[in-house]
ATP-dependent 6-phosphofructokinase
Amino acid sequence: MNTTKRHKTKTILKDSPSSTSINHNELTYATRSDFLSSSEMSSVHYGFSLVLDAGMNAAVRAVTRMGIYVGAKVYLIYEGYQGLVDGGDNIKVAHWHSVTNIIQLGGTVIGSARCKTFTTREGRLAAAYNLVKRGITNLCVCGGDGSLTGANIFRSEWSGLLAELVEKGRITDTLAEQHGHLNIVGLVGSIDNDFCGTDMTIGADSALHRIMEIVDAIMTTAQSHQRTFVLEVMGRHCGYLALVSALASGADWLFIPEAPPLDGWEDRMCARLESRNTGSRLNIIILAEGAIDRHGKPITSNYVKDLLVNRVGHDTRVTVLGHVQRGGTPSAFDRILSSKLGVEAVIALMEASPDTPACVIGLAGNRAVRLPLMECVEMTKLVQTSMNEKRFDEAVKLRGGSFENNWNIYKLLAFQKPSQSKTDFSVAILNVGAPSGGMNAAVRSAVRLALIHGHKVYAVHNGFLGLASEDMEWHKVAGWTGQGGSLLGTKRTLPEKNMEKIVGTIKKFNISALLVIGGFEAYKGVLQLCEARAHYEELCIPMCVIPATISNNVPGTEFSLGADTAVNAAMEGCDKIKQSASGTKRRVFVVETMGGYCGYLATYTGIAVGADAAYIYEDPFNIHDLTTNVEHLAEKMKKDVQRGLVLRNEKCHENYTTDFIHKLYLSEGKGIFDCRVNVLGHLQQGGAPSPFDRNFGTKLGVRGIQWISERLTENYRQGRVFTNSADTACVLGLNKKVICFSPVTELKAETDFEHRIPKVQWWLNLRPMLKMLAKYQTSFDEYVPGEMKHVTKRSLSVDPGY
């Protein structure tokens, strides 16, 4: 951090209509705590402007509140760059309550507009004047690569623009000297997820939610009428939405601009769909609007439809999703992403100096990172250059590791057929613990890949109790990806009390490996089987756990299947609960979430809905804390806040129950607000899986079978599989976007078995952000700022993705 005394003025601009500004004058600080507690922070100004994508309001809220939290004056810039050029009432001071109750809204409350004037020097001169006269020299811009490039040009011209304003007599030399440098931080808003360097852009996940809702609806009518549907999704230059929705829906064919089909694709597609006519009532083809062939000729949805009607005789319909993908309520992921990036943007501006290059805040392995703006822009342009020059393999790699992995897995599952040469291996697949979204997607991809490898597959119903069942055939998992719950059936029973029976079943069916999909019970059950290897040689086989639980409490992974679906379900419930109080007197809701002793679900939902507090076991609290929270909320409710939301994890405290907290708030808030209680319960386990869980489950199923196949080959001796090494019984996890296999015996030391949680949980780092955005005075030293990460062809080529 720069510790020198300097003048600072900050503005945050986004390519949509939202702007916030903060000014630093003669501010000296040595630590984060120093500058946050300084009374001089009141002279800091931020400006904020946006493009129109779901999740933007969460970014507006986060930047506004974080700016105010650190003592700055915040401005909202309406109508994007147009508002910046026009000035006047388009640039307004924001207050804490200005962004109350907007996190759940789609679009952006501060409007958005394209501005040709800003592309001219005259337009940028007007913008500079409007900023300087308000003392703004720090700008946060949220938009795509074009908007961010424009912001960087504005920054590079800043001193020249001020000199011209002085020459024309519009500002004084003193004013120009005081505001001699413009700091810029960008947030990327794009449903296409086409910006190099960041794992996700704001709005992409919400767009996937809209697409999957429509895909699910279309699947029901397609199955009823035995129709083929061609779905056209957005993506003029990037196939991310098409690719992920195809993987998440099990689409039969896919067209994306980065990977055009080889010549003769028409014959191959028609032959494939004709071969599926028997026994299949449904065909889905997904096409990005920018799809092309190898020669750059557009492939349109109507061309594909006519091809299927004329050649195959299919009753085919076209659905063009269009701008419905930009609308609707933001997903939980987008709300949380926007909040994380918005908070980090303010901190980056606070720490910026005249020598700091313009940066963009991105996401890498679920952590906010700072990326050199122009490095990202140049790499993004390089993708299009590769496509223009027909270097399509390079274009796929430049999209990043996740994009490349998605493409490879889609091709593997969609186009590979079961092997005709069978191996000697049998794989048993079972679900253990409570059901969660994504379980069925993992089963589907695991079954298909195991059959592709030539293995025999056993479906095991009802967990460890039902170990051994009929063969699982290829067609039986069709359509499983979008199904909620557990189609195999699942139970929490652990194997220790049925060890002899389980060993007998494994021996009877000659099972060579186990793939166990489930939560804490799955992890603990495989640990018991592994520890029993010394007594039963039948258990000396590869065993893999795919974590699947809404609690997200399995050691060895940052994310479990079903957690994202559960957060979205809880978030939607809380949105409706808050809306129920519209137009009534001031009201506080106490909402209980599931999760056992793990506070992940309560914390993530709390961030997504803008909760005033979230009580969890991992963050101990006492009656003094509860009283302070009630008083804090009462003060807010006396002014402009109409509704309050308090979340409580179901096992956060033995004595401070949901009923106790409800009665405490009801009693202490008397005369200010009333209080209601809601228990979300099993609503959090139901519903269709989120796009993330479908995609994640599909990929984990593939990775699990790939790992098992490798272990089977390595440990096959004299007609049998035998291995008792620790690294052949593992949890398959995702840690900082790296897929890893952690031996269950090693994870034992990292586990709190009494409370069924890992001893160290990464998401606790988000707790300070939750408190700061709820206006609680908390130690800012707990906040972990993002690191600077360079974006080059090499960094993109070695990006592991997931």
Remarks:
- The domain at 205-326 is CATH 3.40.50.460 (Rossmann fold).
- The first strand starts at residue 6 and ends at 13.
- The CA atoms of residues 71 and 560 lie 38 Å apart.
